[in-house]
Amino acid sequence: MAVFTGALVASGHWLLTIFGIGLVSAVSRISVTAPVSEDFRLIAIYSFAIASIGSAAILLPATRRFSDALYKRQPEKAPALLFACFAVAGLAAAALALVVFGIVLDQPIAIILTGVTFSTLVAMIWTASTFCSAIFAVRAVLAAYFTGTLIGLVAAVIAGIQTGIAWVMAMAYAAGLAVSLGALIPVFLSSFPFPIRSATSAIRGVLRSLSKFAYLSFGAFMGALAIWASTLVVWLSAFGETNASGFRAAELYDTPHFFGLLALVPGFALLIVFFETTLFRGLRRHHDLIEQHGSLKQLQASAARLTSLVARSAVTLVAAQILTAIAFVAAAPLAAEANILQSSQVSVMQITAMGSVMHLIVILSSVVLIYLDARRLFCLVQGAFLLATVAASAGLLEFGERWFGVGYLVGASVGAIVAAIATQSVLARLNEHIFMIAAGRLQSILGSRRS
Prior knowledge:
Blueprint: H1 2-31, H2 34-71, H3 78-104, H4 109-134, H5 138-163, H6 166-191, H7 199-212, H8 214-236, E1 241-242, E2 248-249, H9 251-261, H10 264-291, H11 296-337, H12 346-371, H13 375-395, H14 406-428, H15 430-450
Antiparallel strand pairs: 1-2
InterPro entries: PelG
Organism: Jannaschia ovalis
Transmembrane segments: 42-60, 81-103, 109-128, 140-161, 167-192, 213-238, 258-275, 314-336, 348-372, 377-397, 403-427
């Protein structure tokens, strides 16, 4: 159970996306005609991507602000922070959806409103789940995710049978997501039963956190964009196709790439278990030694043990991810034999699965860097991942479809190398880094009290 719920906490957003898109694709094919099924699937994919990219820059700084409020023993700020984050993240996702569906794709007003509603709901669900995960309400998040998704799918099937209209199906699916959101909000508020004194003040605080934690914000945005980067590059290339409704996609790449990315889920689960046990306990012991005024020799020995612990754990996680990737590589031809994939899509799934090994290293290092408050290095890692993915994906297009997926593999590999170097540089000067961070927090608290 710990590993399963760990997968949710660490990869809830991505699990929701993959779970939703996978079921949408499967159910729509058997309930409506192929063109309607394709439009419904693409509305969902576009909305998930928009919500992910549009809200990423807000969620991480807002979560850090929530963490700081608890650190300062100000839990009464939690409800206002949640709803302020709803407003800011939801508005960002809605604005991006309006641009994409209304301007870029030039869709009818019904589809524009559907895309805006869908994207906003997903962004708000991710906000609620992030805050709920911070208080370890994992089972509630799990139940809300899958209950809302299943309700939405049933509603979408009924809407498809009754109307045969893609945007009506998407709105029905969004209604299920609204159920998820409605279930998550009381879970968080039950742990923080405080009145919201000033919503506008909380919104201003969330907006200020974007500049205060600019490296976290920009890094999170680049990290979310990096996940979709290779897909967007292929969509916008000559290999992308525009269907009769004006949606851009690349079926030859999209489906096997999504399936290959599922290889990350077991690694996510092991990662959160590692974080909650090995890393957190090791850092806690090191912090306790600092608070007990340990000698310099003791601190250096403790830092060395912690560095060795992180390295050994990283090797174990990567080894497990390699085995998972091998399993996915072996499963790809079987998926083609079962007519789940085309034979030309097999290599895409296999290459993506191999790239998941390097992607996990990026995620592992990012977790360590965020926990140690190494914001600039975190931003650097995400930037390297994004830029390398875009450059490699675009540069390899001229070599044809056989190279699909290699851009993601190259981008994740470059990101992994930068991430490993960055993490090692922080761990090599761990004591100095912790003292500098503590001094900065103390100065921030004293400054806020004076003001």
